[in-house]
Design a protein that fits this description.
The structure is a homotrimer. Chain A is α/β, with parallel strands linked by helices. Chain A is built from 12 helices and 9 strands. Chain A is globular. In chain A, 66% of the residues are buried. Chain A binds chain B through residues 29, 36, 39-40, 43-44, 47-48, 52-58, 60-61, 64-65, 68-69, 82, 248, 252, 263-272, and chain B through 35-38, 40-41, 77-82, 107, 110-114, 148-151, 208-211, 256-261, 263-264.
Chain lengths: 289, 289, 289
């Protein structure tokens, strides 16, 4: 737990609970164009937070759907050419409407198509939030190509030792892209160009299931839609919410439980999360020296 | 619980348990062309009822698959142009073979493509059952465009107050389309052109997971394949079965359980459901004045 | 349990635990081109074993992904023409790199497209392992077209009575294709051209969920990547691991549990499996007379 005076200086008092309650109160519709591996978990994670998911990737369908939603989540986990075209049309529409757009560059650095597509969206549309692991972020920044598939490469893991340098990197990416940047892992970093915070929540078990990152990107869409006028706080709240839910889930694990049960408990944890629990358990501190 | 004399007059005695047992005994193969969000739940729901799922949407594959199955389920939740063509070929084949076709118009009213595609199938093929929420049904009937994404719009919710009018609407849709109509929500309505029944089962938690509706459409395919000669009773039985399973699932919820656990319990509830439980707990009454 | 002297003669001592530990130690990246019904389960099953999944089917993406992975799994459960082209490019790349390729011919025999596609891959690429049910295997061998959708046809079930004949058939398929052949069902057979073993593990509940077979094919990719120099033992170990995990899962079933819970417990069982449990519970014997 960070010193609470420090935590208060990083976020408005009760900002975390207010952000969560805004989602639960406004039930934002979130348009997801996402991979078919974890799409069911993304939908249930959005419902667990109080939001309402709509998945649509067909170019002929996406503009109508974007138009009725409050935000757009683009996840390139199982890209195909038809979906990319759907993403373009949806992103153009969301940009035009001023909706938050969350980009999850799954596997950027692992293939040319993924790296190029992520860059195309960063450069060509109004991306509001980027959420990925450090290897993906480095690939986007042109700094590395060491992505280990969809996992972070060992040399890219954010540690206490490299936290200050990692935070500075996150701020540079935020400055270059104009987006709030969320780099998640054992320590999570959320940065805009002015400030970076470190969030120390979650459980190593989150890496034992597919979809922890995708679910976080999806719910970030809900928090961003509900809290568009305080976007950085909304992203911090989404990251902290997923982390606290992960801790609750880890705490429930029994001796026979493995990643099947953890997946269930993680959704349960999000579903049961309230503002008070989030305020109590969130561990947010400056990521800077 | 409706008065049992009334219930007896609405369905043959033991029709509910007979319909369920027909599914368990005949293990119908059900061809599903369905969205990628809830497809796994649909497959497991069919298996939980004793049926066998096959998913196939490729135009070059669907006719062979339709040919070996007992029914076809068309769910437009994540439409794309390739899938629509697969749906056309499968629907033509199923119509030719006289197989029941269940249409789930997910998000009709939310986009032009969804509304037009649902209408195309309703008008052009032998759709046997339509299963959706009231907003989707109104969109199909040209009466409204207030669908809230894939959820029912607040003004469209079926209530005790509007039940008679909603039932009359369901009968008109049935008369116009020749299909058995299932409009599901807090109160479910199943109608053909002659009669409408109201089914008061289920749990509000069913709206907290993605896929309750999709799963119901899928198992309706199984009940329709097994009970093609008493289709209305088969649809009532499927709707009641899902509702009772939802009640059983809600009853199991512990203090830490959320929508992750509910999803598991719902499948478990379907799996363990037998004819006696279904007869005992189903709450079926006339939906008319 | 087979006589342990016999078991020892069929596999090197501790080969099972060594194969599992190789997966857990080396964390192989497994490229899966698989159906959208069970893809989430496949990803979580790979993670449960200690491997890392990457799903990619887009022709423009697959070669890069194959290039960074240790093996390739091709599952034709929801074939479409775009995916087939992705499979071709990935299979060519994996063949060129000498990576193990696992083919799961889901529904071969149920449609011309599935049978032809499975045959195309068997004939045109370096398929290393084929994993399917007996109906699918017979369809591939041109011996039958009695596949009951994606399930084995009743007349094709491997029994104690036809085990010797079934094993001989498996060896012939192995000889013709050059692949290790895994025919799974109530009794599993793993064969190369020289020898066939019978594995008597698992639970009838495995047929009550979608994806038991797909998950096994996926983890076979992990075991094959980690144990490429003793491929037959690696496949036996994967089949036994899934069977033992199924037994552990079945043992956990409570009175209200159905296939929803079983699915969770099966992943948990894989996650918690260690070499000692696998050695103790695996039931491996000769499949030949």
């Amino acid at each position: 737990m960070a010193d609470s005076a420090e935590q208060a200086s990083l976020m408005e008092p009760l900002a975390l609970s207010r952000c969560l309650e805004q989602v639960r109160k406004t039930t934002p519709l979130v348009h997801c164009i996402t991979n078919y591996v974890t799409v069911n978990d993304c939908a249930n994670a959005l419902l667990a937070c109080g939001a309402s998911p709509i998945m649509s990737d067909e170019p002929l369908d996406v503009e109508d759907i974007t138009g009725i939603c409050g935000s757009l989540v683009l996840n390139i986990g199982t890209l195909n050419t038809g979906t990319i075209e759907g993403m373009r049309l949806a992103a153009a529409k969301a940009t035009e409407l001023g909706h938050p757009i969350i980009l999850d560059p799954v596997g950027a650095g692992a293939s040319a198509l993924r790296s190029e597509t992520a860059s195309e969206f960063l450069d060509g549309y109004g991306i509001t939030v980027i959420r990925g692991n450090m290897s993906e972020m480095k690939a986007l920044a042109g700094a590395s190509a060491s992505t280990r598939g969809v996992d972070v490469a060992p040399e890219d893991v954010v540690t206490e030792e490299n936290l200050a340098a990692s935070s500075a990197f996150a701020k540079r990416v935020a400055a270059r892209t104009g987006a709030v940047v969320a780099i998640t892992g054992a320590i999570d970093i959320v940065a805009d160009e002015a400030r970076a915070v470190a969030i120390r929540n979650g459980s190593p078990l989150m890496a034992s299931i597919t979809g922890s990152g995708c679910m976080l990107s999806a719910i970030t869409g809900a928090f961003a839609a509900a809290g568009q006028d305080h976007l950085r706080d909304a992203v911090i709240s989404a990251v902290a919410a997923m982390g606290v839910a992960g801790e609750v889930a880890a705490h429930r694990m029994g001796p026979a439980d493995g990643n099947g049960s953890f997946r269930t408990y993680l959704l349960d944890g999000l579903f049961k999360l309230d503002g008070a629990m989030l305020e109590t358990h969130a561990n947010i501190a400056s990521g800077e020296e």
